[in-house]
Amino acid sequence: MENLDHKVIPNFVLFPFMKELVDEGKDVTIVVQGNSMNPFLLDKRDKVTISSCTVSSLKIGDVIVAIQDTPKRYLLHRIVKIDKENVYLMGDGNAVTYTETCPKTTILGKVRIIHRKGRNYRTDGKYWRIYSWIWMHSLWMRRILLAIYHRIPHGKNKKQLAYEKEKRF
Fold first, then answer.
1. Looking at domain 4-137, which of 2.30.30.230, 2.10.109.10, 2.40.30.170, 1.10.443.10 is its CATH number?
2. How is the chain split into domains, by residue range?
């Protein structure tokens, strides 16, 4: 019998379905895929709960899900700038000021809760807002912290580390 608790669904199938549910007012929890939000949202370990939102309720520092048209992909990134028509997004794992632009009409929802190691963190909480502000305003320090983070063996055994080191050269 197949274990349906851990079924992997491709983003191009999942996200349109997720948008329908969010538009109906339902919250959707998904497993984080990708490394752009490292070190605070980890690939295939952490989960996020996404809820509907109005464009007027969005603030700099919010983490949202949006569709980027060229190339077409789904982004789970932090808002770093908002103008009349667009939001500018950046992953927490980016060490430079690289942003992606998405029209406000492509926003699928806003992350409300982060599920990590059995604990839940509300993104409207005081500590999350403080963390967001500090992380967004410290690009110079982010480079150093990310460089250290990427050199730490996160639960990998010696064989995995040796393979990754060999693969780099």
1. 2.10.109.10
2. 4-137
Phi/psi at 150 (nearest 5 deg)? Answer: -70, -15
Q: How confident is the model at residue 120 (pLDDT cuts 50, 70, 90)?
A: very high
Q: 43: helix, coil or strand?
A: coil
Q: Greater confidence, 153 or 148?
A: 148
Q: Using an 8 Å Cβ cutoff, are 70 and 55 in contact? A: no
The four Cα atoms 144, 120, 79, 76 give a dihedral, to 10 degrees, of 90
Q: What percent of the chain has pLDDT over 70?
A: 85
Q: Give alpha helix (H) positions in the chain.
A: 11-23, 126-136, 139-151, 158-168
CA dist 61 and 130 (Å) reads: 10
Question: Distance of CA 134 to CAs 30, 107, 128, 130, 131, Å?
Answer: 26, 24, 10, 6, 5
Q: Percent of the chain, pLDDT > 90?
A: 38
